[in-house]
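thread: overnight batch results

M.L. [08:02]
morning all. the overnight job finished for the chain we discussed friday. pasting input first so we're all looking at the same thing
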Amino acid sequence: MKGFIRNGVLLLAVVVVVFGCVKEGKKYSSCERGPMIIEGFSSPESVASDNKGKMFFVSNVGEELLPSTKDGDGFISLVTKEGKIKELKYLPAGDEFLDAPKGMVVVGKVLYVTDIDRVVGYNIKNRKKVFELDMSSEGSLFLNDLVVVGKDTLLVSATDIGKIYIINTGKEPSYELLAGGIPYVNGLYFDPHSSMVFVVSFGGEEKKIGDIGVIDLASDKASYKVLKKDVGQLDGVALIPGYGIVISDWVEFGKPGRMLAFTPATGEVDVVSVFGQIQGPADFFYDPSCGKVWIPRMTEGKVQIENFR
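M.L. [08:03]
and the structure it wrote out:
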């Protein structure tokens, strides 16, 4: 309900800026601006930021929305905090390639990204590849979201085979299965205070509508537990103060998506109102320094920066 109230106020003062068409006028800091839309991407799937919140990265699956096709046309864009595309094809550099990059996290100076059946890491300063983990033997062609859960430790979702893996990014990179049997598992969010991993799933042929679930990493035997069944075609997930667990929901291909707020204590799911219609809301990023959410509008080739304060 809080989202609808927020939107009623928002519509009175909203100004949408599409970069490349910015009108002269009063200058605002990136935190003061209202909702804005950045255009010019190629099937943007995920957003991540460096530890200082100054460099933002957008993964692009490619001109066509082919998330499991090895066509070499994927890339990662560098965007300023103000929402200006600084370099559209920032990564990879040189002779390196990406096919369909999706989920990303930045740890120190390294950006890790999933790419169909592998996880790749790049130094965000010199753009050199510093990490690669081949997971093709698992049979997945849809490695999807990434989340940091500890030193040298990530989790990755494999959407097409319904599994989550633990990745060791240390001197001897490796992976092992954390949980399976999660149909069309998609977005992951780790809460370090509770050691809980919140898990959302997309839905597909076998199970049309995705669920919200959780894995307790503090438990001796970590296992997946469903918190809310049949919620939507869920993609990104994050804990945002004042909202609870926020989730992006595609709803249905070809139709406007939505942002949801889930309260684990009550099981209540509310719609969070955002500016305009968002088509294909994918793996969004929450910037706590400004209280803003960067939402990839995947099927439109856009990223929307939305106030969440």
